[in-house]
Known about the structure:
By secondary structure, this protein is mostly helical. The protein folds into three domains: 9-58; 64-154, Orthogonal Bundle (DNA polymerase, domain 1), CATH 1.10.150; 181-370, Intergrase catalytic core (hpI Integrase, Chain A, Orthogonal Bundle). Helices cover 46% and strands 8% of the residues. It contains 14 helices and eight strands. The chain has helices at 39-55, 68-77, 84-98, 119-132, 135-154, 181-190, 196-205, 209-214, 259-272, 291-305, 315-325, 331-338, 346-351, 354-370, and strands at 9-12, 18-23, 29-31, 220-221, 226-229, 232-235, 241-244, 253-256. The protein has a three-stranded antiparallel beta sheet with strand order 1-2-3, covered by helices on one side. The protein has a three-stranded antiparallel beta sheet with strand order 4-5-8. A two-stranded antiparallel sheet has the order 6-7. α3 crosses α5 (135-154), α6 packs across α10 and α7 crosses α11 (315-325). The radius of gyration is 29 Å and the shape is elongated.
Amino acid sequence: MSRRRQFGNVRRLSSGRWQARYEVEGGRSIAAPTSFATKADAARWLAGVETDQAKGAWVDPLAGRVALDAYAWAWLRGHARLAKRTREIYEAQLRLHILPVIDPGVPALGTVDLTDLTPELVRQWYAALVEHHSPSVAAKAYVRLRQVLTVAVNDDRIAKNPCRIERGGVEHHPEQRFATMAELAALADAVPDPYRALVLAAGLGGLRQGELFALRWDDVDLGGATIAVRCKRLRLASGEVIEDDPKSRAGRRTIALPTVLVAELARHRARYGGGADCYVFTSEEDTPLERSNFRQRVWLPAARVAGLEGMRFHDLRHSAGTLAARTGATTKELMARLGHASPRAAMIYQHAADDRDRRIAEGLDAMAEEAGLRPPSP
């Protein structure tokens, strides 16, 4: 009776310990990463490798002998369709928080080979980020590292992803501020007149700052009382200005406007003009708005005057969502109005009712009137 051919081979070393080796395609011999106390231990290790190969779970140890630095940058270059701003964010995360030394007691992950990245090392790196930066920075960087190493698993570079921190990628944001309708009216009164309608469009319509800066008059239907959000405008860290689609597919949306905001926009156009292809909101020098200049020259002084120092312009978007929720809007309707995206949200956006969005706008009108924010006289 013939015996099954043994997988690999075991030999005794001069030290008395046992070494296990096996061959792969091409005749290359691979040794176990460590020696064993007994011949039986070495044989069990070989049996495990054989089982992994049969299951398709085996990974060539040499495939993971590439530093994370080289692999991560190659991973990023492979994402040809990333938006410019997203690519800039990913590059900064790799350069500042993932690849370099974060703490003298933790090796720079960029210098470590993929196969040597262990769950313990990842936990040490994560803890160092929390200590030297913040939990939010650590969560964002962890999500990116896990994404890179998931691709490494799919590329058969490593057998398992070492990113195994429970809820490691979950961010815990502090409570967001929001302006009441009366506070929104105070902010609108505090900014220079050319920016009054801008503040109200953020606080009542929920548009993001980049969406407001990109808004053109042919996106605004004063007769139909709607704004079509089609674009965002922002400046990258490189200095390049880009105008492209909103943050997500859900970001392309049409928002019903309360009467008070329609009147403010009509007044704004009558006073400051602009053709169909012109920006709705510009600087007092009639140039496109810049985030940093607007914050320093307009927003911060107005927040101080209104007694709302510390409030961010982005908090007006949160305010818009909160005010809309108080009209009785459902979560699905709020997601559609604000252009929120999630993996499960596509159908939600498609089925949000237009007539319900109009009732949200009407409810905002009622609250605005109660707070003393009335349409301007013609």
